[in-house]
Amino acid sequence: MNDTDRPGAVSDTDGPGAVSDRERATAPGTARPRRWWPGVLLLAVLVPAVGGAVAVEWAAGVLAREGTRPLRVTYEVTGTARDVTVTYPAWQDGGLSAARLTLRSLPWSGEVRTRGFMRGGSLTATLGRSGGEVSCAVTADDGTVRTASASGAFATATCDGF
Question: What pTM value is reported for the model?
Answer without folding.
Answer: 0.56
